[in-house]
């Protein structure tokens, strides 16, 4: 990606100006986990606006939805595959500085991971996952060709005509194919 096409300033978080923001989400070189009502503590002089996004992860069982959430959250990727039994909602915070802006923002990402089997079995889970969602990420695995071929049907099952506001993206988590034994 060309440097001028980036919306965020790369490397800002590791700069002296970004360091206090990084310190607010990291403890002893590990990403700090926040509860539902918690948020990073910043001094009043460093207070920044929070931009919230809800992301719904969909995909066949075993493609790496839970592993992706663990990786993004800085927690260990599960050592073995197991189906997510319902909805697991994870909240992550990430400070960033938009290009051309003098002020950073704090992204609050709500990642909703729902097991494929549970999604098919319980009709109320899909509306809950899509409610107020900003994006739907459709995951697939390079080692499971069917997971890729099923993407159009999955999108058809998950998305309704009224979901035009949802950003849609197909995604292959790199680590899903080799780091999680099935």
UniProtKB/TrEMBL annotation:
Where's it found, cell-wise? Cytoplasm, Cytoskeleton, Cilium basal body
Where is it mainly found? cytoplasm
- Name the InterPro entries on file: P-loop_NTPase, RSG1, Small_GTPase
Q: List, alphabetically, the SUPFAM superfamilies matched.
A: P-loop containing nucleoside triphosphate hydrolases (SSF52540)
Instruction: Specify the superkingdom.
Output: Eukaryota
One GO term (biological process): cell projection organization
Q: Name one GO molecular function term.
A: GTPase activity
The UniProt keywords, alphabetically, are: Cell projection, Cilium, Cilium biogenesis/degradation, Cytoplasm, Cytoskeleton, Exocytosis, GTP-binding, Nucleotide-binding, Protein transport, Transport
Which family is it part of?
Answer: Belongs to the small GTPase superfamily. Rab family.
Protein's recorded name: Ciliogenesis and planar polarity effector 2
User: Species name for this entry?
Assistant: Lonchura striata (white-rumped munia)
Its organism's taxonomic lineage begins at:
Eukaryota, Metazoa, Chordata, Craniata, Vertebrata
């Amino acid at each position: 990606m060309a440097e001028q096409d980036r919306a965020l300033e790369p490397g800002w978080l590791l700069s002296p100006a970004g360091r206090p923001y990084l310190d607010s989400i990291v403890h002893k070189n590990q990403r700090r986990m926040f509860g539902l009502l918690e948020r990073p503590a910043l001094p009043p002089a460093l207070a920044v606006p929070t931009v919230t996004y809800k992301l719904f992860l969909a995909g066949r069982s075993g493609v790496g939805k839970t592993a992706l959430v663990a990786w993004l959250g800085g927690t260990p990727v599960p050592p073995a595959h197991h189906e997510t039994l319902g909805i697991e909602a994870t909240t992550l915070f990430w400070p960033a500085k938009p290009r051309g802006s003098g002020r950073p923002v704090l992204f609050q990402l709500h990642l909703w991971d729902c097991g494929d089997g549970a999604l098919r079995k319980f009709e109320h889970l899909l509306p809950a996952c899509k409610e107020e969602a900003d994006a739907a990420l459709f995951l697939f695995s390079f080692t499971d060709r069917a997971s890729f071929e099923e993407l159009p049907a999955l999108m058809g099952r998950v998305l309704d005509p009224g979901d035009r506001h949802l950003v849609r993206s197909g995604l292959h988590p790199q680590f899903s194919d080799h780091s999680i034994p099935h």
